[in-house]
Amino acid sequence: MPMTAPTAPVTYWLEHAWLGTHVEPGVAVEVADGRISAVRTGAATPPPGAVALRGLTIPGLANAHSHAFHRALRGTVQVGSGTFWTWREVMYSVADRLTPDSYYALARAVYAEMALAGITCVGEFHYLHHAPGGTRYNDPNAMGEALIAAAADAGIRITLLDTAYLSAGFGTPPNHHQLRFSDGTADAWAQRADALKDGRGHARIGAAIHSVRAVPADQLSIVADWARQRQAPLHLHLSEQTAENDACHDAHGRTPTGLLADHGVLGPRTTAVHATHLTPEDIGLLGGTRTGVCMCPTTERDLADGIGPARQVQEAGSPLSLGSDSHAVIDLLEEARAMELDERLRTRTRGHWTAAALLRAATADGHTALGWDDAGAIETGALADLTTVALDSVRTAGPPPRLGAETAVFAASAADVRHTVVGGRQIVRDGAHTLVPDVPTALAESIAAVGG
């Protein structure tokens, strides 16, 4: 895998750089062995031999929640109406047709699309473990390994969030679609997950609880303990639907958040995805334990899930991250913008987050949620992951560069990403992927192959 090999020393000259608090013109970033070895301001022109990145360069974007195979649903699930639950049936039909080879091809194309959108790290919430019917592959982790290989060949980092999915809902056995998701018990899930190799240069291993409906209450702590012992990130879908809340209350007399708290699942290495329908007590539990919350606004509105209380959970103490989830679009700038704009619609007031705070959710806090504490900042010692947004497109032209953060968040789109650097290696150059020569064709062919 080329990304794991040390990269040759290189200097990037950033025409404008967002340094976390402000935009700085003329910044030289020196890279050695994939990390930033020096950051020098006041470089009015590119140093000799430097690679010029013109526009606004920010730390690489972290997509904290992805289901790669959902990309095959784009467009098809926009026909007619329906609910999350009818959408889920279409999703199952695609999942039923995936093999390790076809999933590799699809994920490679999806991750290449992410790189073109400036995403340098993805959290893949992975529960498609076995063959249809639940038969294990010769390598029980063949599907997860396909995703890790796909990320490598698309040039981005991945945290594989290997997911326990054991039940159709509060003790109900998995349905025929879900058999390929299930290991039977949390202990069997842990045994299979143990075989995944951690420590690869571009890949880290985490854990996930699909939801409180999919993991029986008496097995939640097994998954949480597995992650805790490895100091690995733990993610879970939380209160995405009111139906989940109602069913949990019927089964346990508790909200999903309360049930997770009872079983020791919450904490600073845990990230709750969506967290759309929370009580004030739920918000207090999440914030009080420093449990992170990953918002996925484009998916939440695409599925008509609702607007989650992002501002309240952050004020309570929960760090925020962002994800593209079902990939209705892959655009972390849009996710950041949507979180603010959705809150404006909900409250009818403006300015809940600054552009800098929204960029932090899309960069540093997203990386932390995925277990990459050494990424998400343009500073000495950090992983050399950079994203450059054009400031001269039809969307971004006009504002002064000092307002580059506001321009990127509130005007730019994935189409404005000009360069993407991962580990000091340029993966996207002038809007073209350097490893996957024709990403649209790769997407079209891989989606056709699974009947999307």
Look at the helices and sheets and give the structural class. alpha/beta
Known CATH architecture of the largest domain: Alpha-Beta Barrel
Q: Which overall shape is indicated by the principal axes computed on the Cα atoms?
A: globular
What's the count of strands? 16
Number of helices: 15
Segments where pLDDT lies below 50 for 5+ residues? Answer: none
Widest β-sheet, arrangement of strands: 3-2-1-4-13-14-15-16
CATH superfamily of the largest domain: Metal-dependent hydrolases
Distance between the termini: 29 Å
CATH top level of the largest domain is Alpha Beta
Beta content: 15-25%
The Rg value, from CA coordinates, equals: 21 Å
Task: Give the averaged pLDDT, no decimals.
Answer: 95
Estimate the helix proportion, in percent: 25-40%
* Main sheet record: 8 strands, mixed
CATH T-level fold name of the largest domain:
TIM Barrel
Estimate nothing, just give the exact number of structural domains. Answer: 2
Q: How would you sum up this structure, described in words?
A:
- The protein has 452 residues and is an alpha/beta fold.
- It folds into 2 domains: 2-59 and 375-433, Urease, subunit C, domain 1, CATH 2.30.40; 61-369, TIM Barrel (Alpha-Beta Barrel), CATH 3.20.20.140.
- The chain contains 15 helices and 16 strands.
- The protein has helices spanning 84-95, 100-116, 142-154, 186-194, 220-230, 242-252, 256-262, 280-288, 297-302, 310-316, 332-347, 355-362, 364-369, 404-410, 439-449; strands at 10-18, 23-32, 35-40, 51-59, 61-66, 119-126, 157-164, 203-209, 234-238, 270-274, 292-295, 320-322, 386-389, 417-422, 425-429, 432-433.
- Strands 3-2-1-4-13-14-15-16 form an 8-stranded mixed β-sheet. It has an 8-stranded parallel β-sheet with strand order 5-6-7-8-9-10-11-12.
- A hairpin with a 4-residue loop joins strand 1 (10-18) and strand 2.
- The protein is globular, with a radius of gyration of 21 Å.
- The mean pLDDT is 95.
